[in-house]
């Protein structure tokens, strides 16, 4: 505060002026190179010590004399990760340092570790846990031990197989400021914020000066104490760096977008490191789920992966039409039909070829049961079930269709060497035939049930209900991309039934038939099949376990995790899908999502607070990263579903013109 002498008519007096010397800004007060190279003072302070300004210090710190300001205080912290895992961008908040009036710097100390020593250490830890487990009675502690043992064994496997390397790592955060009280508040906010993320920041009390010196490039001594080091694997270490960010190690497959620092992210559904090809996609409405799967489908087709889409809401029609690929729409006016009796040749890995009549009978039986129970479940007695099973078998027998691959053809020759046939496929049995057998039965309950089945046949007088009675008109051959639309069917009865028929039909006529082809079956609104206890749930549980042998990936898409936890099939989907794409989540659901999908706290926070449309957490087994789905202008035109987007209407015009051209060509 400055003082000047002022004069007036009566007397002289000292007047205190409320004008201060201009203070340096926060940025001006940051330490410069000279402050470290030749500081005017270096002093390690102790708690309760009083500094030159008369302030009582309450913690260990280091005073450094500066150039822009008289003194700057430094406090060092070492991080301990309590959650047991790392995630991309976990140190972003430290980098930004927006906790108040202060500054923060990060130092990551990395030392290569001997894989053999690390394996020995893990082995000892597993042995200790196994010993403790044998005597532990507390159930919750036992569960925690089981989780740790499982994690340690997976880590042991990764290091042994050289999938990962082991490192000893220490994470150091150095907070600094010009004002002691402001720095204390800054440090408290820093510790509290990261404590909520399961990262404990422990102050380097007693050797703050050593800790500060350890971050200088001129320091030769090893000043970081060994208790602040912990073991991490290669991908974990990469998560700590802005230039690394860990993420997905794939370098084959397709590029689905960019990570947080703009690097391309690859996704290979058939990568050798994955246990199978299945995937799940989830995110609340508007998160960009459909946009993301459009991107995956479009780019995957171009590298030879075949796709079948079961379109619940009719969202894929424009895309498939502009791609020049089959789009089969089911309705009472459409010419397209699928016969649930269709069978084809199944080929085993050892080369054995046969017609799976048992599976076909079970499929048709399940569909017929569902048709009947739609109206009256109590009518489906044991006697009726037995009659239907035998009647379906008789239908195949009457057409002489057996396990023999040649039995499904009517005439011509069969070339065993090249595995193709010049014969024509026989006509398959139909629901009308089954209805006739049931109507002519002398069992009263069977005759009664036949009246319900009649509704789903050509004799029922309801064209929209009889679309699965008759010979199939769909011939897939080796189409690289095609879709089935069921959105025009009755949503209460025929759409769930259509979903059941199509999933089983594609299994027989596509998944099993072409085991040499990489294929992906995309199911939108998958809850409609998982929650179908009559057919869908049984099919899904089987498909997620067995479709790996047919080289087929199941891609289930829905809004939230709760969809997958309502049924055994949904749980099987999550457990058996190493590829998980997770979009924006509701805050109320995030805890259940985090636990079931093994999300870190940082990833969970990203999904509810930072992620926007098209932003995903991509998890591939033990790898994960944040990705923004990035498309070309033409891809955006193909994929966008926003009617407020001019590209949406531009696409509609293109589709209209293409359909008009196809109609003119058909008239010629």
Task: For this entry, give a set of tags.
668 residues, Helicase, Ruva Protein, domain 3, 3 domains, 22 helices, 24 strands, elongated
How are the SSEs placed, and which strands pair?
Blueprint: E1 3-7, E2 12-16, H1 33-37, E3 42-45, E4 61-65, E5 71-81, H2 92-96, E6 103-112, H3 115-135, H4 139-160, E7 166-177, H5 180-195, E8 199-203, H6 208-214, E9 230-233, H7 234-239, E10 254-258, E11 264-267, E12 279-282, H8 289-301, E13 306-311, H9 317-323, E14 327-329, E15 345-347, E16 353-355, H10 357-373, H11 382-398, E17 414-415, E18 420-421, H12 431-439, H13 444-454, E19 481-485, H14 494-511, E20 519-523, H15 527-530, H16 536-546, E21 552-558, H17 561-565, H18 568-575, E22 579-582, H19 590-597, H20 601-610, E23 615-620, E24 623-629, H21 633-639, H22 646-667
Helix pairs in contact: 3-4, 10-11, 10-14, 11-12, 12-13, 16-18, 19-20, 21-22
How would you sum up this structure, described in words?
- There is one protein chain.
- The protein is α+β, with helices and mostly antiparallel strands.
- It has three domains: 28-239, no CATH class; 247-337 and 475-631, P-loop containing nucleotide triphosphate hydrolases (Rossmann fold, 3-Layer(aba) Sandwich); 339-471, Helicase, Ruva Protein, domain 3.
- 37% of the residues lie in helices and 19% in strands.
- It has 22 helices and 24 strands.
- A hairpin with a 5-residue loop joins strand 4 (61-65) and strand 5.
- The longest helix is centred in the first third of the chain and has 22 residues, at 139-160.
- The model is unreliable at 1-27 (pLDDT under 50).
């Amino acid at each position: 505060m400055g003082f000047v002498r002022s004069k007036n008519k009566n007397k002289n007096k000292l007047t205190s002026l409320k004008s201060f010397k201009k203070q340096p800004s926060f940025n001006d007060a940051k330490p410069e190179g000279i402050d470290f190279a030749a500081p005017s003072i270096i002093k390690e302070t102790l708690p309760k010590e009083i500094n030159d300004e008369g302030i009582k210090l309450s913690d260990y710190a280091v005073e450094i004399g500066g150039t822009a300001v008289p003194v700057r205080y430094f406090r060092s912290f070492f991080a301990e990760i309590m959650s047991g895992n790392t995630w991309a961008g976990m140190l972003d908040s430290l980098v930004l340092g927006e906790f108040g009036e202060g500054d923060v710097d990060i130092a990551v100390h990395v030392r290569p570790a001997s894989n053999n020593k690390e394996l020995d250490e893990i082995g000892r830890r597993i042995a200790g846990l196994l010993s403790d487990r044998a005597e532990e009675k507390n159930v919750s502690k036992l569960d925690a031990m089981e989780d740790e043992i499982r994690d340690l064994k997976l880590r042991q496997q990764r290091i042994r197989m050289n999938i990962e390397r082991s490192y000893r790592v220490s994470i150091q955060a150095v907070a600094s400021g010009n004002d002691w009280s402001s720095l204390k508040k800054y440090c408290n906010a820093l510790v509290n914020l990261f404590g909520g993320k399961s990262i404990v920041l422990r102050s380097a009390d007693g050797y703050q000066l050593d800790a500060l010196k350890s971050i200088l490039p001129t320091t030769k001594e090893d000043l970081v104490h060994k208790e602040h080091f912990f073991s991490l694997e290669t991908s974990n270490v990469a998560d700590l760096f802005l230039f690394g960010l860990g993420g997905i190690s794939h370098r084959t497959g397709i590029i689905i977008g960019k990570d947080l620092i703009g690097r391309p992210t690859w996704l290979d559904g058939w990568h050798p490191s994955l246990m199978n090809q299945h995937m799940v996609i989830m995110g609340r409405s508007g998160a960009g789920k459909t946009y993301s799967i459009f991107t995956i489908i479009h780019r995957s087709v171009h590298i030879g992966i075949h796709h079948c889409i079961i379109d619940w809401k009719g969202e894929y029609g424009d895309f498939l039409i502009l791609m020049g690929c089959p789009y089969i729409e089911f309705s009472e006016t459409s010419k397209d039909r699928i016969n649930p009796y269709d069978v084809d040749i199944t080929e085993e890995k050892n080369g054995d070829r046969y017609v799976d009549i048992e599976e076909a009978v079970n499929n048709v039986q399940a569909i017929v049961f569902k048709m009947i129970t739609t109206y009256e479940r109590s009518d489906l007695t044991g006697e009726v079930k037995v009659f239907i099973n035998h009647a379906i078998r008789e239908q195949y027998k009457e057409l002489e269709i057996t396990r023999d691959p040649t039995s499904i053809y009517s005439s011509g020759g069969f070339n065993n060497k090249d595995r193709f046939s010049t014969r024509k496929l026989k006509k398959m049995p139909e629901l009308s035939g089954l209805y006739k057998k049931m109507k002519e039965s002398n069992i009263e309950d069977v005759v009664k049930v036949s009246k319900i089945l009649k509704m789903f046949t050509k004799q029922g007088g309801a064209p929209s209900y009889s679309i699965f009675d008759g010979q199939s008109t769909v011939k897939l051959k080796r189409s690289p991309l095609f879709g089935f639309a069921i959105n025009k069917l009755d949503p209460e009865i025929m759409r769930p039934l259509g979903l059941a028929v199509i999933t089983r039909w594609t299994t027989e006529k596509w998944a099993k038939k072409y085991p040499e082809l990489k294929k992906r079956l995309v199911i939108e609104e998958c809850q409609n099949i998982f929650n179908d206890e009559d057919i869908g749930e049984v099919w899904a549980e089987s498909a997620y376990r067995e479709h790996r042998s047919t080289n087929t990936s199941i891609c289930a898409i829905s809004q939230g995790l709760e969809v997958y936890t309502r049924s055994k099939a949904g749980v099987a989907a999550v457990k058996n899908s190493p590829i998980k794409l997770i979009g924006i989540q509701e805050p109320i659901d995030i805890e259940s999502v985090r636990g079931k999908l093994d999300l870190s706290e940082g990833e969970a926070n990203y999904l509810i607070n930072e992620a926007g449309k098209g932003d995903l957490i991509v998890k591939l087994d033990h790898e994960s990263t944040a990705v923004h789905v990035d498309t070309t202008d033409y891809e955006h035109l193909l994929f966008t579903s926003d009617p407020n987007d001019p590209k949406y209407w531009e696409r509609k015009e293109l589709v209209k013109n293409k359909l008009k051209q196809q109609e003119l060509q058909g008239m010629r």
